[in-house]
Write a structure and sequence with these properties.
The protein is of the alpha+beta class and 179 residues long. The protein has two domains: 37 residues; 126 residues, Cupredoxins -  blue copper proteins (Immunoglobulin-like). 17% of the residues lie in helices and 31% in strands. It has one helix and eleven strands. Bound molecules: copper (II) ion (CU).
Amino acid sequence: MSEETIRRSELMWGAIAAFAVGIMAAVIVVSSFAMAIHPPSNVETIDPTTLNTNSEFAESNLGTRVNPDGSVTVRIVATQFEFLPRCIPVPKDRQVTFRVTSPDVIHGFLIAGTNANTMVVPGYVAQLRTVFGTAGDHLMPCHEFCGLGHSEMWALVKVLDGAQWKPDSSGKISCELPR
Ligand SMILES: [Cu+2]
């Protein structure tokens, strides 16, 4: 093989590798800017052994709540093998903050059909914010294998439009799973 043939071959494979890297970089840039897909970044620790006496994640404080400033926060405990609460109402076209934690093992948090997706690691609070643009139901399955009952672990997110969104005087709102 001549020097020239080797040089051409090296240049060709160099160009192919550069093209592949360029495509991967473009996928990251487009998905983060245009589709708002980012790695979760909230680092906040919590004692997983005292969740039921912790005032924020005590059972009576779980679910959807409108804060005094009008923002909406949803607090969820992911535990073997259910989400508490199992039915989660949220308003359409308003920013919703989800705060999720686990008292036992690693669970997954995914709102199907949206970009809301994070791991729920015991000892940490997973937090994410999103806005739902259309009313309707989203399945919310656990997507980290967490034990024998993993496949039964899911909840329902109900996006309610203005007429259906009726929090009570304390700002709480809940819903029931269809049977
Ligand atoms: Cu799970």
